Amino acid sequence: MQIITSPQNFSEEELYIDLRSIFGHTLFLKCEGFNFAGSIKLKAAKEMVEAAERDGILRPDSILVESSSGNLGVALSMIAASKGYRFLCVTDRRCNFSTRLLMEALGSQIHIITEPDADGGGFLGARLSYVQALCASDKRYVWLNQYTNPNNWLAHYHTTAPAIARQFPQLDVLFIGAGTTGTLMGCARYFREWHRSVWIIAVDSVGSVTFGDPPGPRMIPGLGMGVRPPLLDESYVDEVIRVKEVDTVRACHRMARSGFLLGGSTGTVVSGAMDWLTRHEAPDLTAVAISPDLGERYLDTVYCTSWLQEVYGDGVFEPDELTAREPAVSLIGSIPSINRSTAR
Ligand SMILES: Cc1ncc(COP(=O)(O)O)c(C=O)c1O
C-alpha cells in the first residue's frame, strides 16, 4: 500500500506494454501517464519547482508562470495547488480543450495566444515573448522556463532513465520523443555513463525545427518545436527519426483498437520506432520507447474523425480501415417498432 498527502509524490515507474501483438515487433513501451498529472511532465515540473524552492527563487507570494502546450501546465497547476502557489499558464490555440479545463479545475489562470510570432518563431515564439513581457512587468512572476532549465533534463536523469535501466539491464535501443528535449537529454546523458552502450534514437515530428529541418504545420501538441530547443546537445543523440502526423494518428488508432488509448506523442514515438525496427530486422534487440501520456486528452483531436478529416483530409486511414469503420455514434430519435414475432 502507498499512502500520500501530496499528489506529486505518486508516480508509476514499472509499467510497460509489449507492442509485439499489435505491430509485430517487440517494443517495450514505458507508460508515463499514470500519475495525478497524467503525464511525464510531472517529473520535470517537480524537479524544477523543488530546485527553485531550494535556491530561494520561489517564495510564498510568487506567481509561477510557464509557457506550455498543456501537460507541463497541468503538472504545474497540480503542484502549485498542492503547495499553495498561484500559477499562470501561457498556451496557444492548439492546446487541447480538456487540458485547459483541467488547469482551470486545479485553480490556475490560462492565457491563450491566438496568433503565431510575426518573425517566424511560430506559436512558441509568441508565447515566450508574452512570458518575458509578463516577468518584466511584475517581480512576483517566476518563470521556471522548461526550455532552458537544466532541472528539466535532470528529472529524467534522476528518475526515468534509472527506472528503465533497472528493468532492462540488456537495453540496446531507446526511442525518445523530442519536445523541449528534457526527456531525451536526461536519458541520453544517463545511458552515456552506463555499463553498456545504448543506441539513443530521438523521434521528432515532421514540421519541427529541432534537428535543423524547415518549419511546417503541426497540429498535435507535445513533440516538435518551432524554435531550436536550447537544452538539446546533439552529440548525445545517435539517430533522429522524423514522423508525419498522419503516421502518428495511424499508430494511435492501431493501439486504441487493441484497447490501449495513448496520447499523440506516443503514436509518433511508436510509429518511428516500428519503422526503425522493420528496417533493421534485429529480432534479438532489447528496445524500449517512452509513452509520455494517455489518450483521453486527445479525444477531440487525434481520436475525433471529423477533426482528422478537417485537418488531414480523407487520407488518414488506409482504404481497408475506412471501409471497416462504421459510424461510432448513431442518433436514435424514436424507439423503433419491435417485430413481435422476433421479440418473443
Ligand atoms: C505529450 C508529450 N509528449 C512529449 C513531450 C516532450 O517531452 P520533453 O519536453 O521532455 O522533450 C511532452 C512535453 O510537453 C508532452 O507533453
UniProtKB/TrEMBL annotation:
Keyword Transferase part of the UniProt annotation: yes
Cofactor: pyridoxal 5'-phosphate
InterPro entries: Cys_Synth/Cystath_Beta-Synth, SbnA, TrpB-like_PALP, TrpB-like_PALP_sf
Any GO molecular function: transferase activity
Tagged with keyword Thylakoid: no
Keywords: Pyridoxal phosphate, Transferase
GO BP: alpha-amino acid metabolic process
Stretches assigned to the Tryptophan synthase beta chain-like PALP domain: 22-290
Signal peptide: none
Cited Pfam families: PALP (PF00291)
NCBIfam families: PLP_SbnA_fam
Subunit structure: Homodimer.
Protein name in UniProt: 2,3-diaminopropionate biosynthesis protein SbnA
Organism in which the protein naturally occurs: Reticulibacter mediterranei
Underlying gene: cysK_2
